[in-house]
């Protein structure tokens, strides 16, 4: 029988193509589609190599017609939203938290070929949150930045939808961003006693923690931070510290 030359649908995948499964599926489906009358004659199914992110992108660009993918989060995002995610991409604590969250679901949108839905916008936190509000994009922001922008221009924060806020009730909260107070190894000896005293004072309930737990930013009415956990009575809240 003459070899088929007519082009057919293009299928995108990575590992299953390398293992030969895509080819086996293509051959079996061609036979099936001819037998049931979907196709009149033999045709070709091309394999477009690419991982899950590539395959979804090829579907959008028209470079592939069918894709076999492996990440439900990426598939859901592709099906249900064309809204981009704005990242400060500045290696700040918030950006590190964002990167860890993406890595948890197997996504690295900042890779060498950045995902089109991942908007890298390396500016200061206030400007980044402002851009997310104006552009209608998703973003991850710290509470202080949100409250500052709210006090400066509430019309911007009013258009933002707060989907999830971190808290300190659960030590495993993915959006909890705990702070540590560190003492430098090269501290000047004349200042050592004061600095070490500060570390002792900052954890006292009637000392530094009283200041932290009552602090309100200028222009805001909301308390910004929560007090540190008591590692004696709440050891699970201090794990890893």
Report what the structure shows.
This protein folds into 3 domains: 7-77, D-Maltodextrin-Binding Protein, domain 2 (3-Layer(aba) Sandwich), CATH 3.40.190.10; 84-158, 3-Layer(aba) Sandwich (D-Maltodextrin-Binding Protein, domain 2); 189-238, no CATH class. The longest helix is centred in the first third of the chain and has 15 residues, at 21-35. The strands form 2 sheets. The chain has a 3-stranded parallel β-sheet with strand order 2-1-3, with helices on both faces. The chain has a 3-stranded parallel β-sheet with strand order 5-4-6, covered by helices on one side. 14% of the residues are buried. The chain contains 10 helices and 6 strands. α6 packs across α7 (143-152). Helix content is 41%, strand content 10%. The protein has helices at residues 15-19, 21-35, 52-61, 72-80, 93-104, 125-135, 143-152, 154-158, 189-202, 208-214, and strands at residues 7-13, 44-49, 66-67, 85-87, 118-120, 138-139. The protein is mostly helical and 241 residues long.
Set down the secondary structure blueprint.
Elements: E1 7-13, H1 15-19, H2 21-35, E2 44-49, H3 52-61, E3 66-67, H4 72-80, E4 85-87, H5 93-104, E5 118-120, H6 125-135, E6 138-139, H7 143-152, H8 154-158, H9 189-202, H10 208-214
Parallel strand pairs: 1-2, 1-3, 4-5, 4-6
Helix pairs in contact: 6-7
A few lines on this structure:
This protein is mostly helical.
Number of domains: 3
Give the strand line-up of the largest sheet. 2-1-3
Structural class computed from helices and strand pairing: mainly alpha
Could you name the ranges where pLDDT drops below 50 across 5 or more consecutive residues? none
> Which CATH C-level class of the largest domain is it?
Alpha Beta
Report mean pLDDT, rounded to a whole number: 88
Q: Could you give the count of β-strands?
A: 6
Shape: elongated
Task: Based on the coordinates given, report the CATH architecture of the largest domain.
Answer: 3-Layer(aba) Sandwich
Tally of individual helices: 10
| Fraction in helix | 40-55%
| Strand percentage | 5-15%
Report the biggest beta sheet as strand number plus sense, adding barrel if it closes.
3 strands, parallel
- At the fourth level of CATH, the homologous superfamily of the largest domain is Periplasmic binding protein-like II
